[in-house]
Write a structure and sequence with these properties.
With 345 residues, this protein is of the alpha/beta class. It folds into 2 domains: 170 residues, Medium-chain alcohol dehydrogenases, catalytic domain (Quinone Oxidoreductase, Chain A, domain 1); 132 residues, Rossmann fold. The protein has 10 helices and 17 strands. The strands form 4 sheets. Strands 3, 4, 5, 8, 9, 16 and 17 form a 7-stranded mixed sheet that branches. The chain is globular and about 60 Å long.
Length: 345
């Protein structure tokens, strides 16, 4: 499924085209992957609608790809292949982080997500909405055996970015965590909190009654509308929405609290909401705002092991690859219950 031009999903357009595409060839230090499943993410909508335009078109989207190694690349970079330990037939996942330089200050400091040369799967390099894709061997992640292909796919982004968001929240057991929106990432964060911080209530703010009901079903302590007030003061709130209004409302957290914004882009439709920020009400008393920028390989690998140990099972809706436009449209119009995954034959 190929994106050839910037367009809109708001009018139920079909921006991706199903076509025959040349099978990629694994280059130096790369592997060729036969893709079995690929998660659908709101970031793909940002790409399609131009908030995060790909540097080149056409491009194959998809950055939550699961499959098996079909071939090893040229041996000029034998060290990379040997370091990865991957062989033909191994089951791997490819996340948003497609590559980083490895030698800048950010990379050397464990923050390869901030590398100036960071490349994103499905944006800067062709992704997993296809039968085959290639990637550097050291940026593919081995998958735990007790997670199926469709279960593992959303863990590569929705789960890993949720894991990083929770780490950045500085939450301590017993403190209340708030989640704004309750889709693919938030429902996995809730399960993580239940496992790691059993004494912490989790409250959910969502404008959709269906999302609020889903949150309570998955174990949230309370669920209300975006503008409602939690029965407990929140020490941290993770915003997982694509819009601005929940950010403003989330600033009503406790003194010294931290808002973590888990979104690569925000839609501009409600930017007027930013004018509603009142300094003493929303920002004073040493509140913090932290944004999440991408993920590291360490985030992905640590989270996969944790998810396998819990074990964490995402709520899934599956579609054939040819129905990618339908999956994206339903996601765009907030027809969300858990994660959406494409099955690739």
């Amino acid at each position: 499924m190929v994106l050839e031009k910037i367009s809109s999903l708001a009018d139920n357009e079909a921006p991706l085209r199903l076509c025959e595409w040349p099978e990629p060839v694994a280059g130096d230090g790369e592997i060729l992957i036969r893709v079995a499943a690929c998660g659908v993410c709101h970031t793909e909508i940002d790409e399609i609608e131009g908030r995060l335009p790909p540097p080149r078109l056409p491009v194959v989207p998809g950055h939550q790809a699961v499959g098996r190694v079909a071939a090893l690349g040229e041996r000029d970079s034998l060290e990379v292949l040997q370091r990865s330990g991957l062989q033909v037939g191994d089951r791997v996942g490819v996340a948003w982080i497609n590559s980083a330089c490895g030698h800048c200050g950010f990379c050397l400091g464990g923050l390869e997500n901030l590398c100036p040369s960071f490349r994103a799967t499905g944006l800067d390099a062709h992704g997993g909405y296809a039968q085959y894709m290639s990637v550097r061997a050291d940026f593919a992640c081995r998958l735990p055996e007790n997670l199926s292909d469709v279960e593992a796919a959303p863990l590569l982004c929705a789960g890993a970015i949720g894991y990083r968001s929770l780490s950045l929240s500085n939450l301590q057991d017993g403190q209340t965590l708030g989640l704004t929106g309750f889709g693919a990432s938030a429902h996995l964060v809730l399960a993580l909190v239940r496992h790691r911080f059993p004494g912490s209530p989790v409250v959910v703010f969502a404008r959709s009654a269906e999302e609020r009901a889903f949150a309570l079903e998955r174990g949230a302590s309370w669920a209300g509308d975006t503008r409602d007030r939690s029965p407990w003061p929140c020490a941290a709130i993770i915003d997982t929405t694509p819009v601005w209004t929940p950010v403003v409302e989330a600033l009503n957290l406790d003194a010294g609290g931290r808002l973590v914004i888990n979104a690569i882009r925000k839609e501009t439709v409600d930017r007027q909401a930013l004018l509603e920020i009142d300094y003493p009400e929303h920002l004073w008393r040493e509140k913090e705002i932290k944004t999440v920028a991408n993920v590291t390989r360490r985030d992905v690998r640590e989270f996969l092991q944790l998810a396998a140990a819990i074990p964490l099972r995402p709520e899934l809706a599956c579609y054939p690859l040819a129905d990618a436009n339908r999956a994206l449209t339903e996601l765009r119009h907030r027809h969300v219950r858990g994660a959406k995954v494409l099955i690739i034959d």
